């Protein structure tokens, strides 16, 4: 008698559980434009790791109602960075990301604006140095067309801005030949 009741409960439980799992899988199915964006950014991140020894630690997405508004990859490196090297890397990362997104014919209909621009990307890069007393740039980021270079204050453990410049100012300071030599 009890085994029959227990068997009934198990059947009911399994029926409900499998239908919930099936429903949740459908609910979280990626949109086609998410697949396109993922493929572009995954390839970009892999190429940047090979080319510049930068490891992609995460990506910030801004997609609302299927429209891509923002892409923000985060990178880390074990190579020491000064402002000059961080500038070159941030500029190259930004140029390459914008180019790849704009070159994708499949993704273009899903972009908030075409061409995708600096307003649509945020790039950050952290230096994971071994020397805790290092005076190197430990964090650099591009947001709203401005690049910030930060250094850790070892007494307070806070980040202090060493330098801030617009994307245009940074571009004017380096030549494309320098970027190509990296």
Summarize the structure.
The protein has 182 residues and is of the alpha+beta class.
Walkthrough of the structure:
With 182 residues, the protein is α+β, with helices and mostly antiparallel strands. The protein has helices at 2-27, 32-52, 83-103, 167-173, 176-180, and strands at residues 55-64, 67-77, 123-127, 139-143, 146-153, 158-166. The protein has a 6-stranded mixed sheet with strand order 1-2-3-4-5-6. Helix 2 (32-52) packs antiparallel against helix 3 (83-103).
Topology:
Elements: H1 2-27, H2 32-52, E1 55-64, E2 67-77, H3 83-103, E3 123-127, E4 139-143, E5 146-153, E6 158-166, H4 167-173, H5 176-180
Q: Hey, roughly how much beta strand do the residues contain? A: 25-35%
The stretches of 5 or more residues where confidence is low (pLDDT under 50) are 13-26
Shape: elongated
What is the terminal separation in angstroms? Answer: 76 Å
Radius of gyration in whole Å, from Cα?
23 Å
* Element-level helix/strand string: HHEEHEEEEHH
Overall pLDDT score? 83
Summarize the main sheet: 6 strands, mixed
The structure class reads alpha+beta
């Amino acid at each position: 008698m009890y085994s029959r009741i227990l068997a009934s409960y198990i059947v009911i439980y399994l029926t409900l559980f499998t239908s919930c799992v099936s429903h949740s899988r459908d609910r979280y199915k990626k949109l086609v434009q998410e697949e396109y964006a993922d493929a572009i950014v995954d390839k970009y991140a892999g190429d940047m790791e090979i080319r510049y020894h930068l490891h992609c630690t995460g990506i910030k997405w801004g997609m609302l109602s299927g429209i891509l508004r923002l892409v923000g990859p985060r990178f880390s490196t074990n190579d020491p960075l000064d402002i000059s090297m961080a500038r070159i890397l941030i500029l190259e990362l930004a140029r390459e990301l914008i180019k790849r997104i704009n070159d994708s014919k499949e993704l273009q209909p899903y972009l908030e604006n075409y061409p995708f621009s600096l307003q649509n990307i945020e790039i950050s890069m952290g230096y994971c140095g071994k020397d805790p007393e290092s005076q190197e740039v430990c964090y650099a980021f591009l947001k709203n067309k401005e690049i910030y270079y930060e250094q850790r204050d070892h007494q307070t453990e806070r980040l202090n801005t060493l330098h801030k410049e617009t994307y245009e100012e940074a571009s004017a300071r380096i030549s494309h030949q320098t970027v190509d030599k990296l």
